[in-house]
Amino acid sequence: DAGITQSPRHKVTETGTPVTLRCHQTENHRYMYWYRQDPGHGLRLIHYSYGVKDTDKGEVSDGYSVSRSKTEDFLLTLESATSSQTSVYFCAILDTSSYNEQFFGPGTRLTVL
Amino acid sequence: GNSVTQMEGPVTLSEEAFLTINCTYTATGYPSLFWYVQYPGEGLQLLLKATKADDKGSNKGFEATYRKETTSFHLEKGSVQVSDSAVYFCALIPDGSSNTGKLIFGQGTTLQVKP
Q1: Contacts of A50 in chain B (CB under 8 A)
Q2: Would you call B99 an interface residue with chain A, using a CB distance cutoff of 8 Å?
Q3: Closest CA of chain B from A24, distance in Å
Q4: pLDDT per residue as tens digits for the range A66-79
Q5: Is residue A73 exposed (0-12), middle (13-18) or buried (19+ Cβ within 10 Å)?
Q6: What is the distance between the alpha carbons of residues B43 and A27, in angstroms, rounded to a whole number?
Q7: Do A99 and B43 touch (CB under 8 A)?
Q8: pLDDT, tens only, B47-98
Q9: Which SS3 state, helix, strand or coil, does residue A102 take?
């Protein structure tokens, strides 16, 4: 357990509304990641962060933004949610003391109607 | 580009059967290879890993060998249990990207073990 929590765990929203998902870690890891999980696609990287205020895009970043104003929190925002963003979202951290093993949070199930 | 391909699932086995889940990859150089497992309703957990050619990763009775010549990292277990029922993901970190940890996943294989 790497002390990763995600909130909310479940959310239902409507198309066009903004949504923010939060990832919180307690162990001061530098790298944090947001993935989405969809059937037939495995997990795909949305954005990642390599430090406070340092972020970069992943494979499927369109329609998403992120922010990291402090080490422990990494926020994922859907500015205007669409039905194609219905998915399960996982946050992860990189433990550089364990040969770069990634530890994952419990996930957030988001449904966009 | 880099990619990971896993065998189609679901895979249904009886308890104590032998398990193989195939995984092949496309990448230049020597990527690091991983197997993650996801139990129902949970996040992913690292099952095993191999960081160089011919390395064998092992954990909880599962094994996988990094085969550079066939670009494969097949997962095996000699005798599965009902508790092994889960989704298994093969993944890689491209050569030279280990400091960023950006994983590339296969699509996942669902394993169901029946008593």
Answers
A1: 100
A2: yes
A3: 15
A4: 999 999 999 999 99
A5: middle
A6: 18
A7: no
A8: 999 999 999 999 999 999 999 999 999 999 999 999 999 999 999 998 877 6
A9: strand
